[in-house]
Amino acid sequence: MSRINTIIRSDASTYIGSGHIMRCLVLAEALIKHGHDVIFACRVQEGDLIDYIESKGIKVFCLKKLHQQLIPKHSADYQAWLQVSWQEDAQEFIELVADADLVITDHYAIDSLWQGLVKTSLKCKILAIDDLNRTHNCELIVDQNLWPNMAARYQHSSGCKLLGPSYALLKPSFSELRDQVISSKNQVLAFFGGSDLTKECLKLLKAALNEPSLPFHLKIVAGRSNKSYQALVSMSVSTNISVEKFIDNFDLELKQSNYVIGASGVSNWERFCLGIPSSIVSVADNQRILSQYLSDIGSVRYLGDSDDTDISSYTHELRYLASGWPNIKPLNPVLVDGLGVSRIIKKIEEVLAK
After folding, report:
1. At 275, which CATH number?
2. Which residues of the chain have pLDDT under 50?
3. Is the same domain home to 9 and 150?
4. What is the pTM of this model?
5. Rounded CA gap, 310 and 206, in Å?
């Protein structure tokens, strides 16, 4: 089919984290490989990942930086994530973009109102990537998560609904690694997102330092925007513990690990795809129902909400792993084949061809 001119409206920041941009990048790179044009539109702010997107060879339309950044009052204060009203954001977006065939939104502060104004102005179609079961004005909705009430989600939204882990936004390397036999590193990998605002890395590290006889290496990936990174490095004095800011080939590192301790969210589907058992923590309001459901069906060990975790929570989990090491197996893994992006692109091309 003809080239699709696609604009992705998403943000990263110290408070938002990196997850929305990272999953959009997976879709963007796949669209480009299919011969389509992709540009991001992002608000300039601390931790925005604009340089990182551009390092991938993808252009970014920069929405203006505010003189004073709004600080969210809690993890579900999504209006503060946008920094301005939805009307201001939509109007600035329209003026920057001018023309688009498809606009992809992945932002908890952007809903049907923003989408309606943009659709009317640009005469475009919209794909909404979401986790929150909100109302959208779009042609396609992607929610890659596994929910207890899947059939009831997005009932008041227009558009085709692509729901569940069969649409997980994973890099192609995950499906490629899935069936490969690769030797492991006798390693537990820990990752709590790009910012780790709730300081899970610090809690885990302090717990690990009090357990000197762990039968495995603990590798903690702090995240690109983790303000505690230097403190974590200075504390990791044990030869059995290492701290990295980020890992470019994270998929391979995950495949070579025996177990993961980390945040819920998109990382769940990466772990399931590669068959890596995990203990998870909810680090945001929108992760709680999902995390509890995955625990209820026996797919993960759920340590609870980050507001409730402390050093003792991780001490208990490290001792649990040590007691059964190295025979820790996935509990009841969710089937994720890693081909979700190709399914989404097929639907996009079908919708744009109409």
Report:
1. 3.40.50.2000
2. none
3. yes
4. 0.93
5. 10
